[in-house]
Design goal:
2 domains, Metallo-dep_hydrolases (chains A, B), Guanine deaminase (chains A, B), TIM Barrel, zinc (chains A, B), Amidohydro-rel (chains A, B), 464 residues, homodimer, EC 3.5.4.3 (chains A, B), Urease, subunit C, domain 1
Chain lengths: 464, 464
């Protein structure tokens, strides 16, 4: 193997590379850019070197040349009508061990669902062979569905969670991976047995992830207290200490998720008026915090989230399929400039698809509009698409790297094919008169993973 | 061809036939029967001749013999673990011409959506080649998704609607097909130009369908006033007259679908206090009436629906993706013994899948539980499954023929395969310890058309 070439194409996947055709991405929450006859050049390092609009095919060679490459021999992929590029989806809340329990136990309220369905299932990840098999299926399944970045909760097992991180690295998915901390309110057969062990395992887990991906090129450890109910003060304090020592570490937890959860948290931590104060006290609310659900958040707490620059992971499917129908005030978060992304919460919901999550985000925003008598208008599809891409990147503090096709960012992208074929027969057929926006709308509303023909992470094709 | 054999297997599809394995169907709204090691024998006429429980493989030949067939040579299909039979899905509200506009225009309130998105689209069915192509794709698409019976609105064009019926017959889908009556509040380029023409075309359409399927073996004409807003008194009276002359004809319309629609109806028909009185006056509320949506139905109207034995087509997707979030009081309908089925309302919603409709029925029932502070408890998955099968059959007055696997009914069934393969990689994986009920739950919550391996209508395999 010629090392020079290997260095020039570090992932061995045909980079550099260019695309010509329709390119669709979000510039801001309410600003969708649809580029017709666009051209995008991806460098050998997987970064976007050029993004141009209204490029005729005759102009392609000139742009290749301008970018410093040799025309004619440079690989350019031409997208046909009905095909377009969009940014990869970002799943800001995902319990990887729940891959094999998706949809089971819907209708149970949170603590029942944890004890009856989830804990017995997650406990199986003690078995590392089971973990390998299930996480391989999980990561492939999410990549196939266009999730180029996921923020994963592992199980409480640090060994299995290391396997999850290794599989992400091997399959080429960008991921935050956390060993789940939980040392109480869970059965003895599925919890960290002491606070010390919980923290020690976490430190060891972080060190392992830094070792396997020293550049944080794809995989980053994330602090993952399950939620305050399952952590003693010692564990929360220990994690806060790690966060202070490592200000680059992201943090994730569940936040004001359900009435039952909020009540129990207050009983366990009577010294705090609310969850914002609780997690802030333990140094767990930073601009790198990803807070899942955020249903019942009052004026004061919203102020803290904004001030501390925390991100909200909106999980509209699990919010409406547990024992109760709950709507997070997403319009209000957006109005205040609080960061918001989408989470499949696969396991807690039923679907592992961000496309489903976008549709459900749209539906629950209609509910919120009705419930607030119009004060909180519905989300548009453009806004839902933003949440699934650039919004998610902001929540993960990765918007300098991914989320849209700004020059200089890494190329995490999906190649969407909407033409009806034997394989892809369910999507709404494209009609002669359909604009690119209608084609995009048909994909969002009626497409699925079969319409995601290629998935790229850092320029590398990873579709499995 | 040997005519004797042809008569014995009238549809040329390998009947008679038996299945052995897990069989799941509804006996009543809250009664799901899961038959382990079941055996079902389907006769040459497509009817169920035997349904047996707990049959060991050694007993199969005895049952074949009992049913009057020759053991050993009789074809028995053995279902493996992870596979089961369930009744075909019944879609009680489906606008076939909207197949190619699914998902488009979501967020618009009803009259805007009709004028901007739907009418221009439906007008294309004037072109019979377009109709042939689009309806072929539509009927195949629905069959593929397990919809063995659909109640279709056609466009206003009787010719195109005849083509739809012919395609259903050719592809083997059981269907109600209606030429849509609409002679006002629609643009000149897309409406019946006179009441006389509207009625005359309808009579001609009915005669044609009776000619092509004289036994009503699969295709039945259905009276289809779009809704009162689009019909003058003359048209409603003319349709009511046809209904009186033909008491076997089913009838479908939209009923109390949206606040805007109800207001306009009251302006156009000030002589009626409500829509129940209006449609009843015109002889359009009978036990064969399928009323779509039924969102805002008061005590009086509920009484009429019950008394007149009308059926409700619940369309939870379109009810929540138009400009407003609306929840039909399904629990209350069930409590009163009013017939309820599910509709994809594909076009008005975004999905052509009854599986999606079941999930959304579950979700909006959670909303209704919250909105009524627990008075109307959520639907269980069992109830949602009932709505998609036996409930739909009741709404169509076809429950003597289809909807479950009662001996004597016609065999409309789906063969569900849940094993994860390259093709079917999104469904929640089945675990060793999963019961048949959990496998069924995983299919309902995370499966899609890829898990519907075979579709049978009247015993004939029709999967396309």
């Amino acid at each position: 193997m010629d090392l020079t070439t290997a260095e020039a194409t570090p992932q061995g996947s045909g980079l550099p590379l260019a695309f010509h055709g329709t390119i669709i991405h979000s510039l801001d929450v309410d600003e969708l850019e649809i580029i017709e006859d666009g051209m995008i050049v991806v460098g050998a390092d997987g970064k976007i070197e050029a993004l141009r609009k209204n490029v005729s095919k005759g102009e392609v060679n000139g742009i290749v040349s301008e970018a410093g490459y040799t025309p004619d021999v440079f690989p350019v992929k031409y997208l046909k009508r009905g095909e377009f590029l969009c940014p990869g989806f970002i799943d800001t809340h995902n319990h990887a061990p729940q891959w094999a329990q998706r949809g089971v136990g819907r209708g149970l309220v949170i603590m029942d669902w944890l004890n009856k369905t989830t804990f017995p299932h997650e406990a199986k990840f003690e078995d590392l062979e089971y973990a390998k098999r299930t996480y391989a299926s999980c990561v492939s399944g999410f990549l196939k569905q266009g999730i180029t970045t996921a923020s994963y909760y592992g199980s409480k097992h640090s060994q299995a969670s290391k396997i999850l991180a290794e599989i992400c690295l091997e399959k080429g998915q960008r991921a935050y991976v956390g060993k789940c901390n939980m040392n109480r309110n869970a059965p003895d057969w599925y919890r960290d047995l002491t606070a010390e062990a919980s923290i020690k395992e976490t430190r060891d887990f972080i060190a392992h992830l830094r070792k396997i991906d020293p550049e944080k090129s794809l995989v980053t450890p994330i602090l993952t207290p399950r939620f305050a109910i399952s952590c003693t003060h010692d564990v929360l304090a220990g994690l806060g200490k790690i966060a202070k020592e490592n200000p680059d570490l992201p943090i994730q937890t569940h936040f004001n998720e359900a009435e039952q959860e909020i009540e129990i948290t207050k009983e366990l931590f009577p010294e705090f008026k609310n969850e914002a104060d609780l997690y802030e006290h333990f140094n767990l609310l930073t601009e790198r915090s990803i807070l899942a659900h955020c249903i019942f958040v009052d004026e004061y707490e919203m102020g803290r989230l904004k001030e501390l620059k925390c991100g909200v992971s909106h999980c509209p499917i699990s919010n409406t399929t547990g024992g109760v129908f709950m709507v997070a005030p997403i319009r209000e978060y957006l109005r205040r400039g609080i960061k918001v992304g989408l989470g499949t919460d696969s396991g807690g919901g039923y679907s592992s698809s961000i496309i489903d999550a976008m549709r459900q985000a749209f539906i629950v925003s209609n509910a919120q509009q009705t419930l607030t008598k119009g004060k909180d208008p519905s989300l548009s599809l453009k806004e839902c698409f933003f949440l699934a891409t650039l919004g998610g990147a902001q929540v993960c503090c990765l918007d300098d790297k991914i989320g849209n096709f700004t020059v200089g960012k890494e190329f995490d992208a999906l190649e969407i094919h909407t033409e009806v074929t034997e394989q892809r027969s369910i999507i709404t057929p494209i009609e002669d008169e359909d604009s690119s926006e209608i084609i995009w709308e048909k994909f969002l509303m009626s497409g699925d993973d079969r319409n995601i023909a290629k998935v790229y992470v850092k320029g590398k094709s990873v579709k499995v």
